[in-house]
Design brief:
Order of helices and strands: HHEEEEEEEEEEHHH
Structural class: alpha+beta
Strand order of the largest sheet: 4-3-2-1-5-6-7-8-9-10
Shape: globular
């Protein structure tokens, strides 16, 4: 094969990249391609000069995910990239691939280093709020008629050393809690009257439960107990 034909073959592979990327994930046909990004370039780590990690958990964890077309895949080695909102996965040939932001609606990671193992269940597709859009992933702390969600927003921060003049970049993660009512997403104010106002249709039961169990409204653990109990009420 001459060089002109070789060049033509390379161009045809790059142009058909989105199709092959999807097929490689669905059928593990990772041996048909190298790792390219959406522009057809050889994938390189864009974070090599940045301290920290953009991932929810830096190590590979087994988990499962559901795409926007409702296809579900289990027993995959996965990572959640909080900065790019992409899901990374490892193919059977140990190639690291990523699914673009907005293509995955649910993903769960199983952390078996804990005992008992912890399942982190994330979802996207929630209404926009606080500079977050439908591509942002939220961690379910409680799920039901009112869900308790936790957001993780990871940004790249640049700081300049006034003495050396050097600039350092690092990942910085910000966390917030939200309620999701099935229609609206609401940022939580850790205030008794505010939270009981959201749960007002069961205010008497909630007041009694909170008092009996000496629960507060500042900690994530107490808020989860409050919402779990509210979900259990008929």
């Amino acid at each position: 094969m001459n060089m002109r034909n070789v060049f033509s073959v390379i161009i045809s592979i790059v142009c058909s990249l989105p199709f092959y990327a999807q097929e490689a994930f669905e059928g593990d046909r990772s041996n048909t391609m190298r790792i390219f990004d959406a522009s057809g370039r050889l994938f390189e780590n864009p974070y090599k000069d940045i301290a920290g990690s953009p991932f929810f958990i830096a190590d590979w964890k087994y988990g499962y995910l559901t795409l926007n077309n409702n296809k579900t895949y289990s027993k995959r080695l996965l990572k959640i990239n909080l900065e790019s909102k992409e899901i990374h996965y490892l193919t059977e040939n140990k190639l690291e691939m990523s699914l673009p932001a907005g293509s995955v609606k649910e993903v769960a990671l199983i952390d078996s280093t804990k005992f008992p193992a912890i399942e982190y269940h994330f979802a996207s597709g929630f209404p926009p709020i606080d500079n977050q859009n439908e591509k942002n992933f939220y961690l379910y702390l409680s799920k039901g008629k009112v869900s308790l969600l936790k957001s993780f927003r990871t940004n790249i921060i640049t700081e300049k050393n006034e003495f050396s003049g050097e600039s350092n970049r690092e990942f910085r993660t910000y966390e917030d809690l939200y309620f999701f009512t099935g229609v609206s997403i609401i940022k939580i104010k850790k205030d008794k009257s505010y939270i009981l106002g959201i749960l007002k249709n069961k205010s008497a039961e909630m007041e009694e439960y909170i008092k009996t169990n000496s629960l507060g409204f500042k900690s994530q653990q107490d808020l989860k107990k409050i919402i779990d109990y509210y979900i259990s009420l008929k």
